Amino acid sequence: MLFTNAKLIAGIAIALTLPLARPCSAQGDAPELAFKASLASSRIMMGEPFVLLYKVANTSAGEVETDWAREHISYHTIRMELFPPWLSVHVIDERQFSLDQQQDLRAKHTALAAEGTGAMIFRRFGPGDVRDDQIVLSRWFTLPHPGRYRITVEPHLSYTPAGKGERILTDSLTFDLTVLPANAIGLHNTAAKLRDEILTAKDNDTRCRAIQKLFAMPEGAVLRVWKEVFADARLSEVNARYALAQMQRIDSPTAPAMSAELYRSGKLKAPR
């Protein structure tokens, strides 16, 4: 039977009730940082985005210095996020086959060395501070078939509490993901909701997250919706560049023609 170990078969409903992961610390010391993660949904359709939500909280009364980072590569003012260097994610299917994490294909196509790489680093957690983020895992892992998958999340975050030595927040959390067979109408409906979010959300972070999710869906199934996003007058130049970068990142065969059309129409202007 699949995943006979009781710990491994814990579904997302159970995972959401798990206590925050605790770091390694000296015996008798209360840990200062806590980690929590969950899947945005434990049940998706083949081709829909699957997303990891996570947060780190300072549970102490003092400040904590950390190496929290979210690396990125820059290209024409667009920041393409890379995987957090302190967080590992492993995905296996029901046959115990481990899926490889895809490398960022964007680096193959642009002269990124000129603009370099960087990181957003939040070094200080004040008392009670919480940092949360999410990763669109479908940008990094391609699920090859419907079925059940096990996702293991392992933080390894170095931090230093005020007046104490360096410690490391570590744990291993496991979630089950059920992937149903694809349905053309269902995929279109999901894509349409993300399209609307891209065009109507008031804050840019929400729009960018929706762009990541939409442009991680299979091109053959949602290309029409991609084109609708680019054609809409409400799409800003910044968001158009970001969406186009997602297409270029995955080697989309439509990206060159879409880029040419965006420049021809004036929605994009040549970088100076």
Structure description:
With 272 residues, this protein is of the alpha+beta class. It has 6 helices and 12 strands. Strands 2, 4, 5, 6, 7, 8, 10, 11 and 12 form a 9-stranded mixed beta sheet that branches. Strands 1-3-9 form a 3-stranded antiparallel beta sheet. A hairpin with a 4-residue loop joins strand 6 and strand 7. Helix 2 packs parallel to helix 4. The longest helix has 17 residues.
Question: Could you outline the blueprint of secondary structure elements for this entry?
Answer:
Elements: H1 12-15, E1 33-39, E2 43-45, E3 51-58, E4 64-75, E5 78-81, E6 87-93, E7 98-99, E8 117-125, E9 130-136, E10 147-161, E11 167-170, E12 173-180, H2 184-200, H3 204-214, H4 219-231, H5 237-249, H6 255-265
Parallel strand pairs: 2-12
Antiparallel strand pairs: 1-3, 3-9, 4-5, 4-8, 4-10, 6-7, 6-10, 10-11, 10-12
Mean pLDDT: 82
Indicate the radius of gyration in whole angstroms: 20 Å
Query: Could you describe the largest sheet, including whether it forms a barrel?
Result: 9 strands, mixed
The general outline is globular
- Work out the helix count: 6
Span between N and C termini? 59 Å
Helix/sheet category: alpha+beta
Series of H and E elements: HEEEEEEEEEEEEHHHHH
Percent of residues in beta strands: 25-35%
Q: Which segments are poorly predicted (pLDDT under 50) over 5 or more consecutive residues?
A: 1-19, 105-117
Q: Quick one: how many beta strands?
A: 12
Helix percent reads 25-40%
